[in-house]
Amino acid sequence: MATTVGVTDEKKLKRFLHYASIGGTYLPGARLHAIHYKEDNIDLLVAILKNMQKEKIFEVIKKVYKENTSPHQEMIPFVLAECARIDSLKIEALKTAEILCDNTKLFLLFFKFGFERVPKIGCGPACKRLIGAYYLKKDVTKLAGEVAQFPKYRGWRHQDLFRLAHLKAKPDDIARQALFAYISRGAETMNKHFNEPEPKPEAKEIVDYLNKVDSFRKERDPARAAETIETYMLTVDHLNFIHLKNRQVWCALLRQIPLRTLLDHFSLIARNKLFRSGRGWDADFKSCVRDSLQNNQAITDSGLHPSRVFIENIAYQFEAKFKLENAVKKNLRVAQKAPAVSSEIVSALNQLMNATFKLFKPTNLRYIIAVDPFDMTTRKVGHIPFMLPSQGAAITVQSYLKIEPNVTVVAPTWDGPISPIEVAKTSTAKELEEILSSVRSKTTVAPKTMPKRDPTVSMVDVFEWAQKQKKKFDVFILVATAINATQYVAKFAQYQRTMKLPRSKLVLLSLCCAKNTVDTKDIFVVSGFDDKVLPLIVNFVKESI
């Protein structure tokens, strides 16, 4: 049940654009799954869109896109598709989609969302103009690269849009005609009209490229595949899945793919045992991966949050082991043992994580982080079952210590009192885990008479402690396995009034599950953990959501 205090429609729209909900609670997980698009959730969004001024709606959407604050970029075409279903917003929504959905993924997603839900947005003149603008105005070489890289996305093909709009290239634009033939009918038809009996000079470059990519996807020889990758600067998206099990192909890819893409496929690399060679390690491949992880320019370009690297490191070390143990518990047939873990790769990931701290500018606000260390090692994190809550708490504390200059860390003892914790800014996540776990022993109560604890409200006294210490904090971040959010609203409001800090913020980070939710402009609730949690907290503090 949610406690609701007035939140503006603009703020609710910002929330939806960031994490697919107008409420003040973030649930980790992929937003393309149907669970996040329940009818009641969408009905609330539509009500907001109908209530807001048209100019303000598109101003907010454009701002979120321009500032790149949403970790779920697919929400931008989703909201635009919902706008296109409303008669008074449709024309402006299609114009905005032409500007913002400027890459294949977002463009195809816009039509997926627009046509897979009822009522469909329809394909009138304005919609056909949008499709035409994308395929007819874009540079043909760039367009061919996008079509070859993503012939389809989430079930929608370029061919589907051609059937809606019936596009034709200008008579003198031979290269685009060849590309359109490839999209509509495939490589065979394109070659029949533009490559046989002799290739047409105006289309030769485009035709050769599309033929090379088309044959590349069917290529079985790893050496030829690696050569083609290097010649044409191909990416993971161009590959036949079988190539992703080959070291030679990966070494060719690693020279050019972004770090984010490497991390997206890191579990796959480990699962296929590419770091191993027989009973030992493949030194050349490990060196190739380490070089990619430690490339300074790639790190700067990546924009990776440290928590993203940390979670991947945890997954590399523990995910396979967790799945194996789980299978044994369920008496399932186990096909193989968990792959061995390389200390060198773990070290390289740790170095990458430390480097990414430098990518973020501090907000220079005053933070207090309260961590309840109880039950942190006996439960699993919501959404990441192979990760311990203590690890989630550690990376949260470490991120703020490394990035922000003014951070206070406290924790409750068994018998209740809030105690400050001495931590160094140089502390590693592992050291922070150990420091936080030792807080449990700091109690004045004899072990045999320890009172029963309620972990959901274990840190409610942190506001009173801050008041007594006469400390002003701009942001409270409370971290525990489970938090009853409704129990913190009144105490936090009292702190805001007493300390005259009406714009201070409260983040309730419930690593396993949130007991209740609240909906106020100054409180943000998280139920679970993933790599998007800490960036979303930053956006909340900056009032981007």
Automatic annotation (TrEMBL):
User: Would the keyword Ribonucleoprotein be found if you checked this record's keyword annotation?
Assistant: yes
Q: Which UniProt keywords apply?
A: Cytoplasm, Metal-binding, Ribonucleoprotein, RNA-binding
Tell me if Ribonucleoprotein is a UniProt keyword of this record. Answer: yes
Of the GO CC terms on this record, one is:
ribonucleoprotein complex
**Gene Ontology MF annotations:** metal ion binding; RNA binding
InterPro entries, per database record: TROVE2, TROVE_dom, TROVE_dom_sf, vWA_Ro60, vWFA_dom_sf
Q: Where in the cell is it found?
A: Cytoplasm
The UniProt entry, under Gene3D superfamilies, shows: von Willebrand factor, type A domain
> Which residue ranges does the record assign to the TROVE domain?
1-365
The similarity annotation says: Belongs to the Ro 60 kDa family.
Q: What is this protein called?
A: 60 kDa SS-A/Ro ribonucleoprotein
Question: What species was this sequence derived from?
Answer: Lygus hesperus (Western plant bug)
